[in-house]
Amino acid sequence: MTQEDHSSFIKTPQQLIVVVLLAFLVPIIGILLLVTLVLNRPSADPAALSPEAITARIRPVGRVEFGAAGGAAAGPRSGEEIVKSACAACHQAGVANAPRIGDNAAWAPRIKTGLKGLLADAIKGLGAMPPRGGVPDLSDDDLARAIVYMANQSGGNLKEPAAPAAKK
Ligand code: HEC
């Protein structure tokens, strides 16, 4: 019996069977995977193609809103909101000798002058405090509510002015 020149890695009948089976199975599995891939490909959602959805997606990041900033158009904001956003920067830590929120001793003499006086000072600015606490578009009512909130957090018992519109 002549020995063949090249040597194969298939040496036994069992190995031959395995190789033959794999030769069938591997392409079949590959085809099945391809078929599922094609069938499951995500198709475009028709709702996402509506003009509204498209404009929403390609809308520029920045938007300009006229008349909505703080003024009357935004509706009344609570004193607490205004204080947190506009006044706390100075009145929380006592920057530039601002009377600190909760510092009853610092507020007591000021509260004695009443909301009218405090409001008048806050409108035109006082010492290191810029007019309207540095937020020019705060309305007098907003300012008054902010003052009431701050003063009442600091031992005061001021009455919140009635808001012009319905307020929670
Ligand atoms: C840039 C810092 C700063 C900001 C912001 C600021 N304040 Fe003041 N505020 C001060 C300082 C400083 C004083 C003390 C002024 C003084 O007595 O010389 C003061 C005093 C006051 C007083 C007392 C006025 C008086 O008659 O004694 C009120 C009321 C007041 N602030 C309200 C507000 C409100 C409301 C806001 C937010 C809308 C605000 N402040 C934002 C610095 C600030």
Sequence-ordered SSE layout with sheet pairings:
Layout: H1 13-39, H2 51-58, H3 79-91, H4 104-112, H5 114-124, H6 140-152
Helix pairs in contact: 3-6, 5-6
The protein binds heme C (HEC).
Heme C (HEC) is lined by residues 82, 86-87, 89-91, 95-99, 110, 113, 117-118, 121-122, 126-130, 133-135, 138, 143, 146-147.
Q: How many helical elements? A: 6
Average of the residue pLDDT scores: 85
SSE pattern, N- to C-terminal: HHHHHH
What name goes with the CATH superfamily of the domain at 77-152? Cytochrome c-like domain
Largest sheet: none
Number of extended strands: 0
CATH architecture of the domain at 77-152: Orthogonal Bundle
The low-pLDDT segments are none
**Distance, first to last CA:** 104 Å
Q: Which outline best applies? A: elongated
Q: The CATH topology of the domain at 77-152, please?
A: Cytochrome Bc1 Complex, Chain D, domain 2
Bin the helical content: 40-55%
Would you write up a description of this structure?
With 168 residues, the protein is mainly α. It has a domain at 77-152: Cytochrome c-like domain (Cytochrome Bc1 Complex, Chain D, domain 2), CATH 1.10.760. 48% of the residues lie in helices and 0% in strands. The protein is built from 6 helices and no strands. The protein has helices at 13-39, 51-58, 79-91, 104-112, 114-124, 140-152. Helix 3 (79-91) packs across helix 6. The longest helix is centred in the N-terminal third of the chain and has 27 residues, at 13-39. The model has no long low-confidence stretch (mean pLDDT 85). The protein binds heme C. Heme C binds at residues 82, 86-87, 89-91, 95-99, 110, 113, 117-118, 121-122, 126-130, 133-135, 138, 143, 146-147.
